[in-house]
Amino acid sequence: MSKKASIGVTGLAVMGRNLARNLARHGHTVALHNRSAERTRKLVEEFGDEGEFIPAYSAQEFVDALQRPRQIVIMVKAGEPTDAVIEEFAPLLEQGDVLIDAGNAHFADTRRREKALRERGLHFVGSGVSGGEEGALHGPSIMPGGSKASYESLGPLFEDISAKVDGEPCCTHIGADGAGHFVKMVHNGIEYADMQLIAESFDLLRGAAGYAPAEIAEVFKTWNTGRLDSYLIEITSEVLKHVDAGSGKPFVDVVEDAAEQKGTGRWTVQIGLDLGVPISGIAEAVFARSLSGSKPLREAARGLGGPSRAPLNGAALQTFADDVEQALYASKVVAYAQGFNQIQAGAAEYGWDIDLGRVASIWRGGCIIRAKFLNDITSAYAEEPGLPTLLTSGGFRKAVEDAQDSWRSVISTAVRLGIPTPGFSTALAYYDGLRADRLPAALVQGQRDFFGAHTYRRVDRPGSFHTLWATTDRSEIDA
Ligand code: 6PG
User: Which region is the signal sequence (predicted)?
Assistant: First the structure.
């Protein structure tokens, strides 16, 4: 009998192709399938010497090429194409076989698919995969959900091809059904926030301190040797250094200033609202992209009056880059704290047992938000597994408290000069909101009770109350 493949990949566009090559390079025999045969042929032709591939040109041939339990990675567009592929293969599979969706699916779709396939005796694993094309080939961060049983066969393969940090694989079983895609969604939300904060830092260094893009590239390069050491800071420096060949201008000045999105950040915010988790840093990052892309609106508002203040000089200018570093760091801690709270809330809502420290540790390598900083998050959860927010853990608490004067001063400068810093500002408002003894929410409750008899609770005794606002003595009743 001819050799069978330990795993198959269907959907051989660049992500699928690179995952298949990564698996083969690690000594796993990989069955290949694609809707059009051409891609399959090309992969074998170009990369056939990297490992053992079994090309298949029909669904049946593909399924027959796999050893049991069959493991099929689906790497097609999220949404209907994924359902179509599932329907193509599911009827050909047997009890215990595993279908893996490694695209950026919505976790609710993953939950639906997992349930439907479980009822048919099949495992369905929704797996987050982060790191783009390069990551897929050289080692991504992998976030598989689905049953524990499916991870027994799939885990060793995925751990093998994932990125490694300090010898540890950047892959772990996240939790049941849609947990993997949920965590990947939050990863992307954090990615949006991180990118926005970095972009605001750039804008401030340029607008308030007058640095040129190439100089800012150097500032980021320096930051990348410290606590902000991360992939996103590293590539920011590269992008800012780049000069457009045609015009000789900084690349960043020839790119249209309208940020696009495929939608995972938007999902994060939508789910944050559903779960009632304040993820304002992520939300502002999504809205900042929307604002940048609102062309007619921006066109109409162009020329609206702003402050006529001179940029920084003297001592303020001297320390400004350091101040921005502090503001960026503190805002980043807030964004991560919010993201991890969202994972906690999702786990509680959907009954997932998610190890937050492990999540931070598999994000240390391979993924877009990979950063030294994630080690500190892992340590924070190791020290205090029930940590309510990263902001109260020893190390972060001190760092943010130490950063706050700079953080506040940078935001004041931005406000004074009319430079928009929605990410920095909302992060600080969140921090101040969380640490406040009393919030004006008490007044909001009073307003709600006044116009809608919505009732309120008191600080001095239990129960619900309503004030009879229309009466002259405004007496209070139990509600
Ligand atoms: C990753 C990325 C990847 C992709 C997103 C974001 O983790 O590898 O997050 O999933 O870059 O789709 O793209 P948008 O900015 O277009 O939403």
Answer: none
